[in-house]
Each structure stands twice: as C-alpha cells, then as structure tokens.
Amino acid sequence: MGRQLDEAAILKLLAKLNNHDPAHRVDTLNALAGLGINDQRIRAEIKLIAKGDPDPSVRGAARKAMRSLGMKLDVIDAVDSWGDLIIQYRDQIIGFVGWYVLNIAMWTLFGARPGDELGQTALLITLVFPIHILILFMLIGIKSTRKFAYGAVVAIAVNFLLSLVMGMITNALCFVPFIFRG
C-alpha cells in the first residue's frame, strides 16, 4: 500500500517535519498525505505533531495526513480539534460577534425613542444596510480583513433568517383567533 523510502529520504523528511517554520511543516505534511509513506518513524512523527505541535494549522495538517495515510485518530485528537477549529476561525467569529455588538450599540444610541418621529428611524434604517454592504465590500477587498468581513456576512445572513422565521411565526399567530374560536 505505502511507499518505501531509503534511509536518507526518511531522515530528510523527518528534518522537514521538525523545521522551525510552521508553513514549511504544513507543506511537508500535505506532501506526505499524498505520498502514502509506510515508514513507522514518519508515521510516529506525524502522530506526535498532530498531538503536540504549538501551531494549530500544523496540527490540522497532521490530522489530515493521518486520515490520508489511514492512521487512526484518537478520541482526544478529535476533542482537541474543536479548539483548533475555534482558533482557525477566530477572525470569522470576531466578525460575526462584532457585527452584532456594533449593531446593538448603534441601535441603542440612534434607534427609535418614545415620542420620536418615525421618519428619523426610517432614515436610519434606509441608510444602515447600504452602509453595511459598502463597508463589507471594502473589508473583503483588503486581504487582512477579509475573514472578519466573511464573519459579518454570515451574521447578516443569520439575522435575515431569524427575521424570516420571526415574521412567519408572527403571521401564524395572527391567524390563531380565526382558526381556533373559543
């Protein structure tokens, strides 16, 4: 099933797996996943990296290599991968939560107050969505803020779906007195 390598090639691969640069280790692990290496020293090193590398992207690449090589993942590895998943999607989570925090603050400060005219609130509602979209396009265009923007887009989609569900529930409740007469 797996490829057999000579001693020099195995030592080179082990050295590459222990390189100080995480990106280099990820590249090596991705290459190993496609090679089907059968050497026990390489497999043991991949398992060690999957359990204990300080970089979450390297641990994820090691787990992917383990799956590709048909190696068994421990239950502990699967539980630990949730933490890695949160770290990997940290920027998107910050964008998602940040969108809600920003909007709650904005609506608390500028939203409708008792006695306010509806026109002022309608103007705010009309301006907010296009401004959000414009800012999101700007953030998506900048590579360093792209993940934050994706999180905010997901927040907008979730908010839209919640609005649809709440609207359907409200409409259904309005019909209850006509359907179930007492």
Your description of this structure?
This protein has helices spanning about 5-15, 20-35, 40-50, 55-70, 75-90, 90-110, 120-140, 145-180. The protein has about 180 residues and is mainly alpha-helical. Helix 2 (about 20-35) packs parallel to helix 4, helix 4 crosses helix 5 and helix 7 (about 120-140) packs antiparallel against helix 8. The model has no long low-confidence stretch (mean pLDDT about 80).
Can you tag this structure with a few keywords?
single chain; 182 residues; mainly alpha; Leucine-rich Repeat Variant; 2 domains; elongated
Distance between the termini: 73 Å
Percent in helix: over 70%
Radius of gyration: 26 Å
The major sheet is characterized as: none
Q: What would you call the shape?
A: elongated
What is the N-to-C order of secondary-structure elements (H for helix, E for strand)? HHHHHHHH
Overall pLDDT: 82
